[in-house]
UniProtKB/TrEMBL annotation:
InterPro entries: Kinase-like_dom_sf (IPR011009), Prot_kinase_dom (IPR000719), WNK_Ser-Thr_kinase (IPR050588). It catalyses: L-threonyl-[protein] + ATP = O-phospho-L-threonyl-[protein] + ADP + H(+); L-seryl-[protein] + ATP = O-phospho-L-seryl-[protein] + ADP + H(+). This is non-specific serine/threonine protein kinase. It is an enzyme of class 2 (transferase). Residues 18-197 form the Protein kinase domain. Keywords: Kinase, Serine/threonine-protein kinase, Transferase. It comes from the Eukaryota. It holds the Pfam family Pkinase. The keyword Kinase applies. Its EC number is 2.7.11.1.
């Protein structure tokens, strides 16, 4: 990325990470920006979740940081890496620094093709094996980690399109033996949700 053309709008408290004004995407709760790690000298993703004063998450810091804490504890090539996270109490934002996938989500990557029909079967099989490898790793943790819904929006592609990585763990949970979602609220896209949800 040409950093000469980007405007720095924010720095992490330690000064290591900088956020540019360029937005990569977002959703109902999260805004995603391009950023830079000044120590490793690599592009990163700066995820920002803005909370209101009334937000229940502010009363439960453990819940607020659950995705970041979980991602930082995991080390697998098929699981998105989280490098750092912090809460800015002044602006009421949770900031999470994750790795950047230049091709974006699998959905974005496939949009380059004519409705995905030009994607060869070998690539689809390769991606499927990688997704299952990531899920197997998550399910082997103690307690098990269940990714709530696997869909092309939550799978991220390397620049060559050969590797996919599981991301967007915002609703993932660690399941204690026999504890299936007793106190969790089912959120997400039902047709992509794990049966446990």
């Amino acid at each position: 990325m040409n950093h000469q053309l980007c405007r720095v709008v924010e720095k992490s408290p330690c000064g290591r990470y900088i956020r540019y004004s360029d937005m990569l995407g977002g959703g109902a709760y999260k805004e995603v920006y391009i950023g830079y790690d000044r120590v490793e000298e690599i592009d990163i993703v700066w995820n920002q979740i803005v909370l209101s004063e009334e937000d229940e998450a502010l009363k439960n810091p453990e819940k607020l940081f659950s995705e970041a804490i979980m991602l930082k504890s995991l080390d697998h090539e098929r699981v998105m890496k989280c490098f750092s996270y912090w809460f800015d109490s002044k602006s009421k934002t949770l900031n999470m620094i994750t790795e950047l996938f230049p091709s974006g989500s699998l959905k974005k990557y496939l949009s380059k093709y004519d409705n995905g029909t030009d994607v060869d079967l070998a690539s689809i099989k390769n991606w499927g094996r990688q997704i299952l490898g990531g899920l197997s790793f998550l399910h082997s943790q103690s307690p098990k980690i269940i990714h709530p819904y696997i869909k092309c929006d939550n799978l991220f592609v390397d620049s060559g399109g050969n590797q996919v990585t599981l991301g967007d763990f915002g609703l993932a949970v660690r399941l204690m033996e026999g504890n299936f979602m007793k106190d969790k609220e089912a959120k997400g896209t039902p047709e992509f949700m794990a049966p446990e949800f």
